[in-house]
Design a protein that fits this description.
Order of helices and strands: EEHHEEEHEEHEHEEEHHEHHEEHEEHEE
Structural class: alpha+beta
Strand order of the largest sheet: 7-6-11-10-9-8
CATH topology of the largest domain: Heat Shock Protein 90
Distance between the termini: 61 Å
C-alpha cells in the first residue's frame, strides 16, 4: 500500500447554528462517530468544527486545508464551509489517509532549499502527484484561484513537455524517487513557458511521499516585470512568509487541539507580523514596477460596482475582527468602466482596507459606486477621526503617514494607488476634516 492513498470523492455535510452535525455523507458520519460524536450532537472533529464555526461567526465562506486525527493516522483534507439560513454547508475534498512525514534530512532539506530559492511558483504534491500546496509570485500570477488546484493532478497546473527529450527529467525522478531539475513545461492557464524542479520527500516508513517543487518562468516569457532586485526579493520572501502565516494562523485557530492562551496570542501576533511583511513586499515590488519607464496598464472592460463588492468581500474577515461593517454596492448594481481588473481591485482593497483600519469599533465603512459625468466613481467613506487639510496632499506622497506612531502599512499604498489610477486615465481624491471621517474617491473613464 502506498504511503498516501488516492484522492477520494467529495463529501458533504450540514452543521446547524448550534454546532451540531445535522446531515453527513457516510464518510463524514463515520469519522465523526470515531471521534465520539453522532448525528444531532456537536461535530466531534475539532479541525472541521473550527472551520464551520469561523464561517458561521464571520458570515462568509471559508476554505482551508486541515489535518485531522483518525486513530493512528492523519486525514489530510480540504474543507469549504459556506454559511446559510439552515446552518453551515460543508464540502470536504482531496481527503486522504497518510502516514506522517518525517522531517527532511540535511541532504534533502538542502536540495529542497536550492530547488525553491528564487521560484515564481512553489508547489508540493503527494506520492500520486496530486497538489497539496500551491503559491505564486505576483509577476507570475495569471488570475487563477490557486486554492481550486489543491487535490488536482500536477498536470492540471502544468503541461509537461515530454517531446524535447527521450527521458523527461520528471518521469525519471518519479520512477527513481530522486531530485529533478530543468523540466520544460507550460502553465496551462496562461501558456507561459516554465522550468520545473523538485526534491523528493519520504514518510516515516521510508516510502516516497511526494515532491517539494518550484517553477521558474523562462526568461523570454516574462511580462514587463519589476527590476531584478525587487523580483528576487519577491520570489525569495513570498513563499517562506506565506508558510509562516499559514502555520501561525493554524496554531492561532487551534486546529490541532487546545493550547495555552499565551501561545495562541503569540501565534496571532506572528501571523499579523507575517502579513505586514508580505504587504511590504507587495508594496516594494509595485513601487519599482510603476516607476519604470515601460510600465503600462491594460484597458479592460470592467464593472466598478462588482469590483467594489469583491474588494469588500476580501476584507470581510478583517472588518469583522474589528467589529466594523462594510456597506457595499447591492448585488445587482453595475457601473461599467475601463481599467485593468487586477489593478483596480488592488486600489479598492487598499482604500477599503485603510477605511477599516482607521474606523472605530461598531462603525460602518461605505463603498458607493456612481456615474459622475464621463467618469465612473467608487466612493469609500469611513467614520474615523479624519484627516486635516494640511495632511491631505501629503498622504499621497511616497512613504508618507499622518501619524507614524499608529499601526499601519508602509506609507506606499496611497502613493501606488494614485499612480495606478492616473495610469488608467483616472484619479484618487480625498475629502475629509478632523473628527468627521474621510471620503476617498476613485474615478476611472466610464464605459457605455
Amino acid at each position: 500500500m502506498s504511503a498516501i492513498e488516492p484522492l477520494q470523492p467529495v463529501v458533504r455535510g450540514l452543521v446547524g447554528p448550534d454546532g451540531a452535525l445535522i446531515e453527513a455523507d457516510s464518510w463524514l458520519a463515520e469519522l465523526n462517530a470515531r471521534a465520539g460524536g453522532r448525528i444531532g450532537a456537536a461535530l466531534a472533529v475539532p479541525q472541521i468544527a473550527e472551520v464551520a464555526r469561523l464561517a458561521r461567526k464571520l458570515e462568509t465562506p471559508i476554505s482551508r486545508g486541515v489535518i485531522a486525527a483518525d486513530g493512528d493516522h492523519d486525514i489530510d483534507l480540504w474543507v469549504r464551509a459556506e454559511p446559510g439560513t439552515d446552518g453551515v454547508r460543508l464540502t470536504l475534498s482531496g481527503w486522504r489517509t497518510r502516514m506522517p512525514a518525517v522531517p527532511l534530512g540535511n541532504e534533502t532539506a538542502r536540495d529542497a532549499d536550492l530547488v525553491r530559492a528564487g521560484a515564481d511558483w512553489l508547489w508540493e504534491t503527494d506520492a500520486a502527484l496530486h497538489l497539496t500546496y500551491v503559491a505564486v509570485a505576483a509577476e507570475a500570477h495569471d488570475g487563477r484561484d490557486v486554492e481550486a488546484l489543491l487535490g488536482q493532478p500536477l498536470t492540471r497546473l502544468f503541461a509537461i513537455d515530454s517531446e524535447t527529450a527521450d527521458d523527461p527529467p520528471i518521469l525519471r525522478a518519479l520512477a527513481l524517487h530522486e531530485r529533478f531539475d530543468d523540466q520544460p513545461a507550460v502553465v496551462r492557464a496562461s501558456g507561459r513557458a516554465v522550468r520545473l524542479a523538485a526534491a523528493p520527500r519520504f514518510d516515516r516508513t521510508g516510502h516516497f511521499a511526494g515532491f517539494l517543487g518550484s517553477a521558474r518562468l523562462e526568461d523570454g516569457d516574462r511580462r514587463a516585470a519589476p527590476g531584478a532586485f525587487s523580483g528576487q526579493l519577491d520570489r525569495a520572501l513570498r513563499g517562506p512568509l506565506a508558510t509562516i502565516i499559514a502555520h501561525a494562523e493554524a496554531i492561532h485557530a487551534q486546529l490541532d487541539g487546545g493550547l495555552s492562551e499565551t501561545y495562541v496570542d503569540y501565534a496571532g501576533d506572528i501571523a499579523t507580523a507575517g502579513r505586514h511583511l508580505l504587504g511590504l513586499v507587495d508594496d516594494l515590488v509595485d513601487l519599482q514596477a510603476i516607476e519604470r519607464n515601460d510600465f503600462h496598464v491594460a484597458a479592460e472592460a470592467i464593472d466598478l460596482a462588482d469590483l467594489a463588492r469583491r474588494a469588500a468581500g476580501l476584507l470581510q474577515v478583517r472588518a469583522s475582527d474589528k467589529k466594523v461593517r462594510i456597506d457595499r454596492p447591492a448585488a445587482g448594481e453595475s457601473l461599467p468602466a475601463t481599467g485593468e481588473f487586477r489593478r483596480v481591485l488592488q486600489i479598492l482593497v487598499n482604500l477599503i482596507g485603510n477605511a477599516v483600519r482607521y474606523s472605530p469599533e461598531g462603525s460602518v465603512v461605505w463603498a458607493r459606486a456612481e456615474r459622475v459625468g464621463d467618469q465612473a466613481a467608487v466612493i469609500v467613506a469611513d467614520q474615523g477621526k479624519g484627516i486635516g487639510a494640511g495632511d491631505q496632499a501629503r498622504i499621497f506622497e511616497k512613504f508618507a503617514r499622518v501619524d507614524p506612531d499608529e499601526p499601519g502599512g508602509s506609507g506606499l499604498g496611497l502613493y501606488i494607488s494614485r499612480r495606478l489610477a492616473r495610469a488608467m486615465g483616472g484619479d484618487i481624491t480625498v475629502d475629509s476634516a478632523p473628527g468627521q471621517g474621510a471620503r476617498f474617491t476613485l474615478t476611472l473613464p466610464a464605459r457605455e
